[in-house]
Every structure is written in structure tokens, then in C-alpha cells.
């Protein structure tokens, strides 16, 4: 009898009919069998089966207009509440647009094929097929400008501190409005999840902070503190006999900012380390055109961003994030019980002090 090749050891493709009203776990495990459906299944299984172990610290990066599509309250918030995400790097736009919902405004399903000249006349804003009134922007701008005039904002701070302090006000607005959902920043405040923005001037939040600076507001973003705090979070994950995992939606600056924590530790501070242990990315970009920003996990190994010994624990699914996120989140919530909240926001100073203590050993040797 001919010996079966080792390459045929995978589960057989099963073409049996799909059931009506099938649950997400069975749908993903039984019917996402090949191509990027299989990569999404592998990503969800890696996330649920390995990354959600108690000793893994999980960072999530968010790029693209995800929160205007409702994914903040529907997906990101449940992840934080379940302890499935411990720290976040996001574009400022995702945080800004999520705040629309939190302060009582609505966004609407629409069409991407409407004449934008007509929308301009009607004072309607379009984000592809999402439509909302221009007043939503003005009211949200006014909310941020009003809040940052409080005395607690009149200083320099990391973006994590800014978002935490802002989250307190957003959470209070949600409470007063008795909303049936929670916001990203309001939940991050309650759960102690630090939220960073790698390019704080590149959003309407940063634009409003800049505008208020013209009139004497003293709020300043300390982006260098962000670099040290995020590196400290990752180093602590590894030094506490744990692991570091990254869950990446999209690419761009948030992805790189999250992954550069390891080169900051190894290359710049020259602390002995090997890279992140788990890597899941959902993207529709391509590495060969330069659009994948840090490219594939194997390329990230060359930078020290990913531990070369852990390369099998990496998955890239080339899928629209708005399709993949609800499936992955639903699967994880169905498969795993909530984890204890790490509340890393409240440990930032302690973790940076530990980072410096370890870096000092190398720095003082060279002096």
C-alpha cells in the first residue's frame, strides 16, 4: 500500500450542506475550509485557543473607519469587557467617530453611489456607505473642546492619559443618556485599558486640541511617553513569565507603533528580548506594493518584531476588517470565558520604571 504523504494530514474538505440557523462556532470550524475563509478560521482559533490564555498580554491595533460602522460598541467593547484586549493603539479618527454615538448622535446606512455634490448641499457627510448630518461633527468638536478646558487637561500627557481622562467624561455622558451600548473610550476608562494614538494630530481630536492651543489651552501630547509606555507593557508581559500577542485590524501607523515596541526594547534600549509571541492580522493590503506597512509576520521577524521561534503562531487573513471582526469576536466570546482585567492603564508608571531599570544596566555599562 502506498504511504500517504505527510502533506495530506490536514482535515478532509467536507462539502456537506450547511445547516439553517447555524451558530458561529460550527460555521467557522466546519465551513470556512479554504482560501481566506480558512485563514480567518485559523486566526480566530489562534486567538481563542492560545492568545486568550491568562498569561498572554494582548495589544490590538485599529486602522480604517471601523467605529463609524458600529464596530466600536458591537465588537471592541465586548472584547475589552471580557478581558480579551489589554491595550490598544488606534487612529484618532476611530476614537472621534465612536464618540458620535456616545454623546447621542446617530449615523445611518446609505449608499456609496450617491452624488456627493447633492450631499454637500444637504449638509450630509459620507464615509463610503455611512451617512450622517454635518451637525454631528460640529457637536462632537464642541464636546471635545469643552472637555479639554477642564483644569485636569492643562498639562502635557501621554495619549493614554488623555484618552483615560476623556473616557471619564464620555462614560458619564453615556450614563446620563441611558444608552443601550457603550463607547470605546468610556469602556477603556472603566476597564483600565490604555488607548494610544500613534499620530495624535492626524484626526479631528488633534485638530480641536490644536485649535484650542491658539487660545491658551495648555494640553500637549507627549508622544515619547507613548513609546516608552507601550514598550514597557510588552517587556512586562515577557518578564512576568507570560507572552505578548498582537491583534491587528488594518495596517498603517497603529500597526507599526504596536510592533515597534520590540525593536524599541531590543535595538534601541538593547535589552535582551526576542519579539512578540502571537500575531494575528486582518488586512486587505498587499506587501508587494508597499501597502502592508511592516509587511508579513516573516518579514517582521527580520526586524525583531516577531519571535522567530513563534512564527507558526502567526496568521494573516486578507479579509475586510468589517467582515472579519464580528466573526472573530463572536467566535472568541463563544469559545472562552472572560479573563481577569489586567488594568494596565493604572500600572503605567510602575512598568516604565521597570523598563528603565533594565535599560539602565546596559546604558551604565557603556558610559
What would your notes on this structure say?
There is one protein chain. The protein has 367 residues and is of the alpha/beta class. The protein has one domain (44-366): 3-Layer(aba) Sandwich (Deoxyhypusine Synthase). It has 15 helices and 11 strands. It has helices at residues 24-31, 35-51, 71-81, 92-102, 116-121, 134-147, 159-177, 184-191, 204-213, 223-239, 252-259, 261-268, 297-303, 321-335, 348-366; strands spanning 56-62, 87-90, 108-109, 124-127, 130-133, 156-157, 195-196, 220-221, 243-249, 278-283, 314-318. A 6-stranded parallel sheet has the order 7-2-1-9-10-11, sandwiched between helices. Strands 3-5-4 form a 3-stranded antiparallel sheet. The protein is globular and about 85 Å long. The chain starts with 23 loop residues before the first helix and ends with a helix. The model has no long low-confidence stretch (mean pLDDT 95).
How much helical structure, as a percent, in the residues?
A: 40-55%
Could you give the distance between the termini?
69 Å
Based on secondary structure, the structural category is alpha/beta
- Architecture, according to CATH? 3-Layer(aba) Sandwich
Number of discrete domains: 1
**Order of strands across the widest beta sheet?**
7-2-1-9-10-11
Sum up the overall morphology in one term. Answer: globular
Instruction: Write down the Rg.
Output: 22 Å
Instruction: Please report the number of helical segments.
Output: 15
Query: What is the CATH topology?
Result: Deoxyhypusine Synthase
Outline the biggest β-sheet: 6 strands, parallel
Q: Mean pLDDT score, rounded?
A: 95
Amino acid at each position: 500500500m502506498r504511504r500517504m504523504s505527510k502533506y495530506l494530514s490536514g482535515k478532509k474538505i467536507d462539502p456537506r450542506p450547511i445547516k439553517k440557523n447555524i451558530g458561529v462556532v460550527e460555521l467557522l470550524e466546519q465551513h470556512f475550509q479554504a482560501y481566506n475563509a480558512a485563514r480567518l478560521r485559523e486566526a480566530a482559533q489562534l486567538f481563542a485557543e492560545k492568545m486568550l490564555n491568562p498569561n498572554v498580554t494582548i495589544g490590538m491595533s485599529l486602522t480604517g473607519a471601523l467605529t463609524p460602522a458600529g464596530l466600536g460598541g458591537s465588537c471592541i467593547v465586548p472584547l475589552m469587557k471580557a478581558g480579551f484586549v489589554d491595550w490598544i493603539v488606534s487612529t484618532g479618527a476611530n476614537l472621534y467617530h465612536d464618540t458620535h454615538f456616545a454623546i447621542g448622535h446617530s449615523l445611518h446606512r446609505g449608499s456609496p453611489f450617491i452624488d456627493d455634490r447633492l450631499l454637500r448641499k444637504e449638509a450630509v457627510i459620507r464615509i463610503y456607505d455611512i451617512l450622517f448630518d454635518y451637525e454631528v461633527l460640529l457637536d462632537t468638536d464642541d464636546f471635545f473642546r469643552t472637555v479639554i478646558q477642564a483644569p485636569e487637561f492643562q498639562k502635557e500627557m501621554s495619549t493614554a492619559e488623555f484618552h483615560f481622562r476623556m473616557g471619564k467624561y464620555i462614560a458619564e455622558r453615556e450614563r446620563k443618556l441611558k444608552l443601550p451600548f457603550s463607547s470605546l473610550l468610556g469602556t477603556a476608562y472603566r476597564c483600565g485599558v490604555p488607548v494610544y494614538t500613534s499620530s495624535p494630530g492626524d484626526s479631528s481630536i488633534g485638530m480641536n486640541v490644536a485649535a484650542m492651543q491658539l487660545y491658551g489651552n495648555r494640553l500637549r501630547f507627549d508622544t515619547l511617553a507613548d513609546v516608552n509606555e507601550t514598550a514597557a507593557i510588552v517587556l512586562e508581559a515577557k518578564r512576568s513569565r507570560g507572552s505578548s500577542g498582537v491583534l491587528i485590524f488594518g495596517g498603517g501607523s497603529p500597526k507599526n507603533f504596536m510592533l515597534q515596541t520590540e525593536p524599541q526594547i531590543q535595538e534601541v534600549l538593547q535589552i535582551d528580548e526576542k519579539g512578540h509571541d502571537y500575531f494575528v492580522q486582518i488586512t486587505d493590503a498587499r506587501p508587494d506594493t508597499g501597502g502592508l506597512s511592516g509587511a508579513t509576520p516573516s518579514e517582521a521577524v527580520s526586524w525583531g518584531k516577531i519571535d522567530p521561534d513563534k512564527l507558526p503562531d502567526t496568521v494573516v487573513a486578507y479579509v475586510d476588517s468589517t467582515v472579519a471582526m464580528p466573526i472573530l469576536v463572536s467566535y472568541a466570546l463563544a469559545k472562552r470565558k472572560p479573563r481577569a482585567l489586567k488594568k494596565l492603564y493604572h500600572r503605567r508608571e510602575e512598568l516604565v520604571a521597570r523598563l528603565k531599570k533594565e535599560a539602565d544596566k546596559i546604558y551604565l555599562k557603556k558610559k
